[in-house]
Amino acid sequence: MSQKILIVGAGFAGVWGALGAARVLDAAGVTSSDVEVTLISPKPELQIRPRMYESEPQKMAAPLLPLLDAIGVKFLEGSVDEISVKDKTLSVVSANGQKRSLAYDRLLLTSGSKLNRPPIPGLADHAFSVDRIEDAVALDNHFAELAKLPESPARNTVAVVGCGFTGIEVATELPKRLRESFGANAAVRVVVIGTQDAIGPDLGPNPRPFVAEAFQSLGVETVLGSGVVSVDADGVRTASGTRIEAKTVIWAGGMRASSLAAQVSSHVDPLGRAEVAPDLRVPEAPDVFVAGDVARALADDDGHYALMSCQHAIVMGQFGGHNVAADLIGVPTLEYRQPFYATCVDLGEWGAIYSEGWDRQIKLTHAEGKARKQMINTKWIYPPAPNRAEALAAGNPQASFG
């Protein structure tokens, strides 16, 4: 009977985890009859979440079955709702609600993250998001319906709640998208609301002036220093009493790790990420490895921890896949390290800013930055072609990203 490696989640870490695991087994001459690798996810596709702020979000998915077939990895359609590290089993729920239990010899948890939606009155009923394809498509359909209504300030106004990476990219893309929906001469208004006193609080001082320049150029307004306390069909109200009339509210209030992380580790950080050893193993569950948005992993020797980003998820996935397979067949695991870090923020028609290093030294701006962003969004973060040699090479954790 073959040994089982289960990979939970087909996000960036899960897909590159499958490539990394297949690469190790291939190099060792281990066949699927000896070790079976299965990727579990609700759909056999990789949603390109960093692109959900763009138009036509329904196109932002990469099919996975041809790639998985090429590397000899099985796919199981379903959602994991329970993991027992004691019994080394997990429960998978199919689309029709049927449950089945699967045993594993090694587990790679890459179940990702989801948008944090606090219990703000009206938020669940009236706010849109760009977290998943389904969410972004719903927003697109909403704009199409609004275009049928008579023009009014509220119809033409969008309130974006959240002034981090997602909020910035959504807000700066919206003026163009709204004109496409409402007409080239429509008087559109985009307002970004944040509890912090500055836009992009996590960006640091170097990119911030360029973001401010882009906001001014595109006419994007800000209401800062006060959080949203209620949302309704006609707008939002902040804690300071400010009322913004808007037929569209987009929530971009930060991410939280999948709750499955807390099922494999009793040590999770405030974002819900499991604490891991240098090789991405869960110390209290040595047959479980964690990668991507569910892992709190040290990325370098300077004390920087990986962020919830595709940049870190891809490389962590490579290491996690390598290690989960290597550990099973008795090959030494590798210590996850990702010293190179870059940031590229799309700023709509203004362009983009590309920086390198944790201190975010600006390297490219405007059109040059936009070209780099488009390269990242359309090339570098997509899975390799379903060619076995190319796919296995993409699973190498010691190859550089980008």
Automatic annotation (TrEMBL):
Its cofactor is FAD. GO terms for molecular function: NAD(P)H dehydrogenase (quinone) activity. The lineage of its organism: Bacteria, Pseudomonadati, Pseudomonadota, Betaproteobacteria, Burkholderiales. Pfam families: Pyr_redox_2. The keyword Flavoprotein applies. One of its GO terms (biological process) is aerobic electron transport chain. It comes from the Bacteria. This is Enzyme. Belongs to the NADH dehydrogenase family. Keywords: FAD, Flavoprotein, Oxidoreductase. Its EC number is 1.6.-.-. PANTHER family: 64 KDA MITOCHONDRIAL NADH DEHYDROGENASE (EUROFUNG), APOPTOSIS-INDUCING FACTOR 1. It comes from Paraburkholderia piptadeniae. InterPro entries: FAD/NAD-bd_sf, FAD/NAD-binding_dom, NADH-Q_oxidoreductase. Residues 4-317 form the FAD/NAD(P)-binding domain.
